[in-house]
Amino acid sequence: MPTFFEKKQLVTPGELLAEGDYQPGENTYMEENRIYAQRIGLVDAENKRVNVVALRAFYVPKVGDIVIGTVIEVGFNGWTVDIKAPYTAMLRASDVLSRPFKPQNDELSQVLNAGDLIVAKIASYDRAHDPQLTVGEPGLGKITRGQIMRVTPTKVPRVIGRKGSMISNIKQETGCQIILGVNGVILVTGKNTADEELAMMAIRKIEEESHTSGLTDRITQLLKEEKSKMEENKT
Amino acid sequence: MNDKPEKLIDKKGVRLDGRKADELRPVKVQVGVLPNADGSAYIEHGKNKILVGVFGPREVHPKHLSMSDRMVIKCRYHMAPFSVQERKSPAPSRREVELSKVIRESLEPSVFVDLYPRTGIDVFIEVLQADGGTRCAAITAASLAIADAGIPLRDLVVACAAGKIDDTVVLDLYDAEDKLGMADVPVAYMPNLNAVTLLQMDGVLAPEEFETALNMAVEGCKKIYLVQKEALRTKYMTTVVKEEAEE
Amino acid sequence: MSTVLTRVKQKQIAQLIDAGKRLDGRGLTDHREFTIEEGLIERAEGSARIRLGKTDVLVGVKIETGEPFPDTPNDGVLTVNAELVPLASPNFEPGPPDENSIELARIVDRGIRESKAVDTEKLCIEPGKKVFVVFVDVYILNHDGNLIDAAALAAVSALINAKMPNYEIEDGEVKIKTGYSPLPLKSHPITVTMAKINDKLIVDPWIEEEQVMDARISIAINDEGNICAIQKGGAGFFSPQKILEASKLAQEKAVELRKKLGW
After folding, report:
1. Which helix (H) or strand (E) holds A19?
2. pLDDT digit string, tens, across residues B146-171
3. 2.30.130.10, 2.40.50.100, 3.40.720.10, 3.30.420.40: which CATH number matches A9-54?
4. Strand partners, C191
5. Is the interface score ipTM higher than 0.95?
6. Distance from C-alpha of C165 to C-alpha of A18, rounded to nearest angstrom
7. Is pTM beyond 0.90 here?
8. Which of A8, A34, B110, C14 holds its CA 20 to 30 A away from the CA of B95?
9. Which residues of B touch A39 (CB under 8 A)?
């Protein structure tokens, strides 16, 4: 029952990973009794399940995901939203307006217009239908301040860190509010631009060095250093 | 009239560009070269210089071309006017239309089209300089670009041609050999699945010669596959290398 | 409006093929019955119509005079065009040639050109100045599968049937005389298309088999039994072994057809 890789080896699509009594996990597929990689990534096996952590993948919506998107079109009864996924998402007017929706009276573009950014949750999604969004929960809705940045969706868990340790550190050191869209779009809101930029720099560094160890400590260290530099420049 | 060389391959088995019968031209590939594309690759195969950009999966426009149960693959093979000896008109020629189709059909078997219904991927191939075997080099680069876009694949697709010059079956014909030779057999191949996804032939070959050419092209593909894998590793390994240097 | 095969029918076809049979009772390597009618379009210099099962293809050959290509001053010109006329299928739409009609024309062209079916040197009237230009126009009248083989067979039949005008050169001018001579032909290539279904090769696929197949391969064979053109089509693949199997099968079928046609 052989595997053909070493732990965390970089594999490419089509590479044979294992043969025999194994299960195909993330980013792998099975043909007869052989398991192959589907994407470029780092391979590992856990309890006979072969997984590839993709280094390159696009976001695929899942119900419950918090995403940040851009309104691209105002329609008759809702808005079309770009959530940086293969499918555009829909936000229905009825979801946003707390009262029943009257097409003649309500001008949807006054509520949300093309170009507006929103934080939303994936309410429903399946193979046959485009994802439907909802903003009917606290913390969701139109974005009015802050800066937007994008990371590869596969790196978002790394930005969060184990039990949220990484992201809490960044928030603490920079005093910024950070909303991480599962779709790789991130909103950073701070007291001033310098703080926001510091947080964004840290996140970019995490994306670049995501598969190294000791990252959390290095980032915290870096933030402390930069922060004190900023204090010095002020005086 | 150009003076045609007397022989394309001499008695010692050396071709006009110095290669032996079963030798490939040098191949270099880079992945992730176009910032605006979802995936991209650039290849230099001999004197061929080809750039590929991939967009998707994304919604299909026009909508009536989308399919409810699978992904649509669109492919455009196009040659720049300055890519060939005599300037080529930018309008798509019949050859470019046929090549766009066969290249698409060579890449499609590698893509898991059932995973993302109602979407499409666009593969744009621009031949910047041509010297024989452009469709093969284009396929090699296009497959990398699709992988670079994070699209799940069964295997990479790699391509190489074989043919016949002066009664000798040879690997990887360049333009002069293709024009003056007796046969050209482009082949695209998925190495881990032992699957041929593009096969064409023009010229005249005895059945045994065709078998030799096919096998030779497949072996050529396997060699270029190593270059493909290396290109992907180079692009995605840089951070790990950096870390090791720091320690 | 596309005609989609029901899943039931798809399964039926695949199951039969596993058992070595086809829906119309043919063996896996049998062609459909076909007839070729020659010379039915008098206005054309040559013509032929094939009915391969219900696939109906008409080819017309027009011969005109013109200039040769600069890099082949002693050769006549041959050009092949194909039209998937809308009345031939609910899926064909009017308009400029799409990728299917262009591919079809180029495959037929390749078989004829590479086998040197037309002796283009004999089409030279005045080297570098005037040659005969042979237009082969493939017209699909009804699509019931395997347009490639039908078109290729009809095209060669039309070329066999074609006649070019007699001429003489008088005071540096080309003068057309009375009478005609047959087009000088050196070879009569035969194209065999095989579809792959459930890893089996089936010859002369009918339209519903084409909708179920995962790929096809067309191989053109010249009079000497050598291969002069190959084209793989469809979004599937072949193993190298399967390709060599197809090559062998194509050679056998070409011999059979050559006998039947008397080429």
Report:
1. strand A16-19
2. 999 999 999 999 999 999 999 999 99
3. 2.40.50.100
4. C220
5. no
6. 70
7. yes
8. B110
9. 147, 150, 152-153
